[in-house]
Amino acid sequence: MKRVLLILAVALLFPGVVAAEGTVGVFFDGPGVMHHSPATGEWFYAYLYLHNAEYYVTAIEYQLLTPMDPTHALIMMGAVVYPDNSLLQIGDPFSGHAITYWPPLNGYMPGYNLLDTIPFYAVAGCEGLDDFPLVMGPHPETGFLRATYYPNNYYFYPVGLTSILCPVETATEEESWGAIKSLYR
Amino acid sequence: MFKGKVLLFSLLLVFATSLYAGEVDECLSTAGVSCSGMIVNICPAGDFEFIREGCGGDADYIWVEVLDGGGFGIENIPWTDFWLNACDPGQELYLSSSSVAADSLTNEYGRTTISGRIAGGGCVLSGGLYIAVQGKIIVENYPACDVTTCLDIKIHSPDFTGGTSPDGKVTLADFFAFTQTYNKGYPDPLFNPCLDFNDDNAVSLSDFAFFAGHFNH
Asked: Which domain holds residue B102?
């Protein structure tokens, strides 16, 4: 019984820890939208946001991971745009990116902090890009997806999220719960 | 006759001691550090690490005891009359005219401490720092007085200018030097300990954040 309670306590603590460290993800058309289906020849923007990291963030390092197959060539990346308080950067999103911020990003307000903006060009729309994932992963040189916070620049470890280009949607119909239950009679 | 000789001798004695009274004797004066292995990060703007944090705590300091030729403490030396630099001339720091300040005037024993920040650039990894009071570098090995007192302190700074000499500004040249050692750690030959600001024997994201915080200073 004690063991069960302990496991339960740890399980309850875990989401709290994740929330405190925050998440990092690629968003489209603003916070909360993590999928996009571009048309052929469309320029679209991927916004990298740090969410719910309750720190004054001074730097972050990550790598944007995509499938290592020829579909890669179907989207082209433009020049990364940084927020005004980002002075220095090393690397780029696909080969490992380190970005600094001064003054620091305020992780307490507004909750979503823009890390950088990546313009993409869709060469052939969603042709061949079905369920194309954009994963926020660890920086290849350190093996960490991590950030630092003011004033001592200690590390914290946000969770990387996955976004999808050209999601393949499954058709659904609205149906009542009674009708669904009747299928099993 | 005898009284006259005594008077003359007394006057000579007074004259001899007053000649050195108030003037710093670099050999009788002493200095030291309250902890061992102190490492201090400095910036030309004087807004980096406090000396008191140089050993990982918050209460360390450099102490100085300033004596005159008679072995008496010199009182009320202004806090601006102190100076630090590398004992090894090859690692000379770039310091402005008011880079270092004592915590207070010297007391009746000629003692004071230095625990604030240093405004300057450069890197001292070996040999330590000398301290000068009113232009006189404190030495030891009495009576020869031929050994400079070198304090056990290392200095790191973002003002590094490609590893040659600091120039009092943290510029793109320093950033280039930083990128060359980024994500390198001991014992990688490309690891540059001068740019390891969190003292973890590697130059990583945390150091990058420190560097950016002092860029263009």
From this structure: 22-213
pTM score of the predicted model = 0.84
Phi, psi (deg, nearest 5) at residue A76 = -120, 140
**Does the pLDDT of residue B18 top 70, yes or no?**
no
A156 interaction partners in chain B (CB closer than 8 Å): none
Residue A75 or B113, more confident: B113
In a domain, B96, yes or no: yes
Question: Are B182 and A87 within 8 A, CB to CB?
Answer: no
Nearest Cα neighbor of B31 from B83, B74, B66, B69 is B66
Which CATH topology does A38-155 take?
Immunoglobulin-like (2.60.40)
- Look up residue A78 and give its DSSP letter: -
The pLDDT assigned to A106 comes to 94
Instruction: Indicate whether B10 belongs to any domain.
Output: no
From the number of C-beta atoms within 10 Å of its C-beta (0-12, 13-18, 19+), residue B76 rates as: exposed
CA-CA distance, A144 to A159, in Å (whole number)?
A: 10
pLDDT of residue A9: 56
Residue type, A110: P
Q: Please, what's the largest Cα pairwise distance for chain A?
A: 65
pLDDT digits (tens, 9 = 90+) for B145-187: 999 999 999 999 999 774 567 889 999 999 999 999 999 999 9
Whether residue B206 and residue A153 make contact (CB cut-off 8 A), yes or no, is yes
Compare all CA atoms of chain A with the CA of B172 and give the residue at the minimum distance. A88
Radius of gyration of chain B (CA): 21
Distances (CA, A) of B103 to A17, A133, A162: 42, 58, 54
